[in-house]
Amino acid sequence: MNNLKKKLLAGITFFSLFSTPLLAQETLPEMPDKLTIGKLTSFINEHNLNSVEEVLEALPERVRKNFVLIHRSGSLANVITSEEQPRVVLFTPDASLMLAFASNTTDVPELTNQIEFAQLRKNQGNWRFGILDFNSGELVRTEPEVCASCHGSEERARPIWESYPDWDSTYAQHEGQIDYDLKVKLLEIIGRKNDDPRLKHLIWSQSSDRLPQRHDLNDRKHAQASMAFGMEMASGQAQALFSRIKSHDNYLNARKNLFNCSGQFYNTGVFSGMGINSFDLHMDRLPGQNRYNSWSTGETNLNDLLILLVLHDLTRDYPELAEQLKQTENLALYPTEQFAVVKETMYDDLRERLKVLFFKKGQERQDDREAISMRYRTVIGAGLLRQVRQPVCDFFASQE
Description:
Layout: H1 3-10, H2 14-19, H3 37-46, H4 52-58, H5 61-64, E1 67-70, E2 87-91, E3 97-102, H6 109-112, E4 114-121, E5 126-133, E6 140-142, H7 148-151, E7 166-167, E8 173-174, H8 180-192, H9 225-246, H10 251-254, H11 269-272, H12 278-281, H13 302-317, H14 319-326, H15 346-359, H16 362-370, H17 374-378, H18 380-399
Antiparallel strand pairs: 1-2, 2-3, 3-4, 4-5, 5-6, 7-8
């Protein structure tokens, strides 16, 4: 009998013992479908979960099967992170909540007995960072100021993740390929997972009977963990940034300038006029660092995702533009063997991409996103947005 069941049984009163079937008391209820850090904290307190292991055991399957392994970390936990004992980052199917813990359970107890969290606050336009600390034998939740030194100040805090195609700190390295020594280390981790007090609670897609080529996820068509994590995180960050620019005083006047009808496709300098800077758009950098290449998920960057949301907003505010796109042939078509869904008009293509990238929720979101090619949902800058520029510019010219 596991520790969670023992705790529940120990708390059964004489009355409940005879008024409620015993088996009903042995299993924790399911966590809320839309898991947030607030709901998770309430669940932990309500059910008296007092350790990292107990929390991992209680997490829903949809979270325990989505995780990345990190062998070199920029966080405070780097001192207990190695190729043999990686840091683990769990995430919900849309990566709106991330939970990080150490597989190292012996060194530096004040760090090993913690779960770090990141929570997307889409409407506020940022992320919330903090720690679930179990060193006292019960949950203490904190949001230390030190988080801001890497993730940014509260109003623009966001995650840090390496840009495609290089995830040097993970078991994916370059374009999902890892060197032989790291493959052996990953095989050793997989081989001991069932006996590990923390790793045994994760749902793995790989077995120890063959040398892994990289770390893959369970139950995903496109299983490369670092790629999938980055894709989900980018959708969340794009929605957060859109909330920020839409509330900016300059938004209504500036948004059409993103399509730069007098020159190149768009000018990211327009974003700066709405309070968005390079730190917001480059999730692989720390405050004060310079990056000249766009942060990428593969064939899409945050600029493209953000402009896609602006385009959607324009079609809602200008029904005439939406109607024009419905009448415009989609020239961003791709071979049917590569993409399961091909839309004939630009408007239908826009709607399909929005659903796949942003509007589906929970497990339905993951199932539907996995049902079509990852390439279809990533080729945005090279597809729809570049094709839609001229119809958008023609529409605004007709309004002058």
